[in-house]
Amino acid sequence: MRTALILAAGLFAAPAAAGVPEALDQHILPGFDRFVQETGALARTAEEDCTAGTVAPAYHAAFDTWMPLAEVKIGPSDTGALSVLFWPDDRGFTPKALNGLIADADPVVTQPEDYAEVSIAARGLMALDMLLFDPAYDSADPYTCQLVTAVAVDLARQAETLQAAWADEFAAALRSAGAAENATFLSPQEAMRALYTQVLSGLEFTADQRLGRPLGTFERPRPRRAEAWRSERSLRNVLLAADAAQSLAHALAETDLPLTDAAMVSVREAAAKVNDPGFQDIDDPQARLQVEVLAQEVRSLRTAIANEVGAPLGIAPGFNSSDGD
Amino acid sequence: MHRTLLTATTALCGLTTMVLAETDRGAVLTTYADIAAAAYADSLATAQELQAAVEALIADPSEATLTDARAAWKAARVPYQQTEVYRFGNPMVDDWEGKVNAWPLDEGMIDYVDASYGGATDANELAALNIIATPEPMIAGQTVDATSITPDLIADTLNEADGIETNVARGYHAIEFLLWGQDLNGTEAGAGDRPWTDYAQGGDCTNGNCDRRADYLSAATDLLVSDLEEMAALWATGGAARAAVTEDVDAGLNAMLTGMGSLSYGEQAGERMRLGLMLNDPEEEHDCFSDNTHMSHFYDGQGIWNVYHGEYTRTDGTKVDGPALADLVAEVDPALDEELTAKLDTTMAALGKIRDSAEDGFAYDMMLARGNAEGEALIMAAVDGLIDQTRSIERVVTELGLDSIAFEGSDSLDDPDAVFQ
After folding, report:
1. Are B302 and B412 contained in the same domain?
2. Which of A213, A294, B105, B360 has the smallest C-beta neighbourhood within 10 Å, fewest atoms?
3. ipTM of the complex
4. pLDDT tens, position by position, B308-333
5. What residue stretches are annotated with the Imelysin-like domain (chain A) (predicted)?
6. Please, are residues B220 and B109 in contact by the beta-carbon 8 Å criterion?
7. Using CB atoms, which residue from B140, B371, B408 is nearest to A117?
8. B404: which chain A residues are within 8 Å (Cβ-Cβ)?
9. Domain total for chain B?
10. A-chain residues within 8 Å CB-CB of B264?
């Protein structure tokens, strides 16, 4: 009886959010450092030479550093992530917003700090995807060149703001969850649940949106609804998002995750069989099938993480920003 | 198996208290269902008034009959918006909701639009179809007979045509577009300005096809009324939606809290308010044609407040109330009840400020404009309030021991096999 009591007391006193510091120190904070570095390089490249061919490699490098962070939509990123990567864009806001700026030769492009005021549809990675890879835009045109540079510089500024907000305040709020002065997270479990929710909802987003949107229905596939298909990043983003989920799951968990790791191997195997990195061939039933299998493997990865990370800790995901329509 | 074990434990713990607590929870769910029944009945009654006003407009088109129809539409939104909190937790409502309140829409699919609207998009080849001007349109490679515009044509062929969600052919917002037309004022004040002569027959008809436009408006309004009849019946005594939340106490409470949390965060704070603001796009207003968005946001928030406090004021001013979720939370954790009550009030105050500012001439469109710091502050105050209350709603879920029940969109947790279907 006595032993049981001591054990129980020990459980309550221990920092139940073990895993939260690991998620911050191993994944999130170094991730923001890399994102700042690569978006800074992108901005400097564009300032020197804004032609699409020169900027494209820096764009890809910057995009690669965003994907590990893309689905962590809490704290500063709850709002901040929207202007880094605005997608899906069902109603074509990105071309509309960019065309509006170009048609007016809007002088907002000359002041990087003002560019933060423009529509999120004309900011961030998806604006660059359109400007650099859609034949409708010509980076040799002087205004379009200025626009590419403005978007790149604004993105680098966004990266710095986000990195600072995470490092200065939000990381501390997560670490001190349950402390008397912490009004955001009333218990260590709340901090854990907040991060865990991001892992699961991120994989749900990858399966339902990144893969589900282009898949559409068998009769009516929608290749143009793939994410960043113009820059042929659709498949790469799926893999990077799945990698990020696996990495965060390991940080949060206190045990090995054999099912999760096996599920990730299956995700990679399925991805290796997809031919078109932009999913533009899914009108073909054979190509479509490979993408469907990949979506299924991403959902299995989500189930594995729920069983291996969530269940032992007794946490279910909370509300996420994708609840709703 | 679990259930049996729980019952056994309950008996051991002391029968009287537990039975009392159980009764309380059941009564809370009865209040929840009663409010739904009253709010959907009010939605139906006000939609029938809209139907009468639309019939009057079509029979005798004039500035006055168009104004009356617009007023009836706005009045119909007041009770309906307060039902939106029933969506996410109740599959019967969620499956049905798209018929009446789908948004945003590519209105060019329905009727004429300004040249600035553009044409087909990456996502929707039918964005500018204009069914009112096109008796035999081509939809997804098939010629469709739309020579006669009927409720069936709208429901079965046009709505979500080509599998595209923004092809919204029915519901409040399709009717709104037919009454107001496009709002071409951008981020300046002013709503859509469709002339009444769009419904004039013969030589006075403006913008063409006034007969087909009248047929469309009439058919869409009839559909709205029949859709609301269906939902009102589901919540009335003996209705299936009522049964679903009152039969299983935990599932019912979970439905209440899921509806409150999902509407607060992902839907209202995220999709409807913050996104529109960050896009600076007045078309992202929820009621963009009528400029009624500030009212819709306010009554969405009110619906969440209603469910927590077990209280709803009907369109005739009478009150429906009873044992509330707030009472239940106050019993278990008084501090949490105070916390959520205060946060809901903060949100309502912020939504009230938006409503009052808009009614005083600072239109919601203007608040969305690029660089409008005052508008941004008004909208973000409500967004922050909605996000903040979601955290407390999560705490209620945990406090009531409901957190083992997965939230919406988590099929794989409820049923790992579902992912292989």
Report:
1. yes
2. B360
3. 0.89
4. 999 999 999 999 999 999 999 999 99
5. 28-303
6. no
7. B371
8. 316
9. 2
10. 319
Residue B139: inside a domain: yes
Amino acid B6: pLDDT: 36
User: Do residues A241 and A206 make contact, with C-beta atoms less than 8 angstroms apart?
Assistant: yes
The answer for residues whose C-beta is within 8 angstroms of residue A121's C-beta and 6 or more apart is: A86, A89, A93, A94, A96, A97, A98, A127, B279, B281
Region B183-208: mean pLDDT is: 93
Same domain for B113 and B244, yes or no, is no
Residue A143, SS3 per DSSP: helix
The residue written with tokens 């359109």 in the block is: A130
Backbone angles phi and psi of B311, in degrees to 5: -150, 130
Residue A59 to residues A82, A203, A225, A292, B336, Cα–Cα distance (Å): 18, 24, 21, 28, 47
| pLDDT tens-digit series, residues A114-158 | 999 999 999 999 999 999 999 999 989 999 999 999 999 999 999
State which residues form the domain around A143. Answer: 17-168
Q: Which CATH number do you get for residue A97?
A: 1.20.1420.20
